[in-house]
Amino acid sequence: MVGTQEVAPEAAPMAATAPEAAPMAAMAPEVAALAGPDIMAATAPEAAPMAAMAPEVAALAGPDIMAATAPEAAPMAAMAPEVAALAGPDVMAAPAMAPGMADFSALDALKTSSSSSSSSSSSCTSVLQAAMMAPDLSTFVTTAQAANLTTYLSDPTLAATVFVPTNEAFTTALSQFGVTPTEALAEPSLLKGLLQYHVVPGMAMTTSTLTDGLTLTTALTGQTLKINKTRATVTIQPATGSAANILDADIPVCKAEMDIIDTLLFPSISALPPSAAALVAGRTMTGR
User: How far from chain centre, in Å, is Cα 88?
Assistant: First the structure.
């Protein structure tokens, strides 16, 4: 299993602007928050920090963009209050990550803590709370908000295996599928379908119980995932696009198990709600 990963630099569409161009704060918040670090670096030094962005969108930015803000910026402060309230002291104390790095060490304690998998709703750590403990999973948290799945993923009674993509996985998928940030944010039904495809309800399975060729039925109606397993690796094959590697496995969260993956899993396009399917119709995983 790999705990860190190198983030591939993205093209900087704003790089051609003049130095005196208006800083990112002048852009539409929902687009600015999803811009890559290259774009952030091209803005004026006096650009307003992330805290000035719309709270529900700022959390989508991830550690790369957060690192470009003032050193004293608080990553959790940008989250919507109702989600930030779910975070415990460990989450609030989590430092911003350096650009290009993914770190899930904050979740290590859950693997040795009996409280993380406790059946008591007052003491266990839910899927959403665990995701909030790792800065590189902030996009998953905010996507859950936009998809109206915070209650579902915060439920301590949820028995499931949940595959959680990294911030880079979300950014890469948008680019590869030819969907703009604005389009994605305007389609909560698309975000909901995608997240449901990452949940296998009914069983909290560890990687040791996953077998090669196993088919998993997801929370997205009629859609499955396939497990490819060798002696050294476990990958998850979706209906559309590339298989995902597991970066950090077997994280107990209340009655569920959580695995962090490096690729956003796409279901069959026909399984998405009509408006979401129409958005990506005719596009491929390599762009428009």
Answer: 19
